[in-house]
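Backbone shapes recur. Consider a single case.
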Amino acid sequence: MRRVRLVVAYNGGTFHGFAVNPKVKTVAGTLSGALQQIFQRNIPLVSAGRTDAGVHATGQVIGCDVDADTVLPTLRKQLNSLCGPEIIVKEISWASNDFHARFSAIWRHYQYLVYNSDFPDPFKVASSWHVMAPLNLHAMQLACDPIIGTHDFSAFCRRPKPGGEPDLEGPELGDASGGPSREKSLRRCVMVANWKQVGDSTFQFDIRANAFCHQMVRSLVGTFVEIGAGKRPSSDMMSLVRSGDRAEASQLAPPQGLFLTAVGYPADVTATFTAS
């Protein structure tokens, strides 16, 4: 057996999240079914982030172990034939056996799209949040500064269930297939956070952090949009971070505007990847 690294894109609108759930259609369940069909046995998957229901990805990273004599270009074609167009393997390569898609990662990058117009666009409803109220880009950008750096993001994260492990979305420090036990702290290090306008009516939020707790990005975006709409001042963001009070943050932004776009790994890990 040998470890393989996949870079995967998917439309999350038709899936009930990433993690395998035998009762509903999920991204991991669909990929696992395809791998089982190809190899005639169960192939466990480990992802860099377990995205929530309705959330998309253009750069999800997945690791799994397959037969050492597997021809990777052929495997990629087989997976795309069985899973496409909803799930597509963009890249496939060998990795060292100590590569772990989740625990080897040092950052994850998400983007969120807001379509700001009087009327919805029928071609963007599945990939953005339609907001009719005019948004002030400068106000939203000012509110980014307080979240840069290492903070407790309790005000923007769904609380862990009492007596159990935190309910984590994505990067986020737990793994169903084993590995280090999940961390209960909601401290995260945000490296990049900024808003920009792309096109006449679309705003794009980019955020990069070492990890994200459940609903963190959507909660942040909901608050940014209230700031941009003039419902609260930019200074509210700093007081929210300091408060740690989830009840003080704004509504969650809907999932369809959120994309996991990239995952970063140390140079000594990425150097082990070999092209197919």
Remarks:
- The first strand starts at residue 2 and ends at 10.
- Confidence is low (pLDDT under 50) at residues 163-183.
- The chain has two domains: 2-103+264-275, 107-263.
- Residues 107-263 form a domain with the Alpha-Beta Plaits fold (CATH 3.30.70.660).
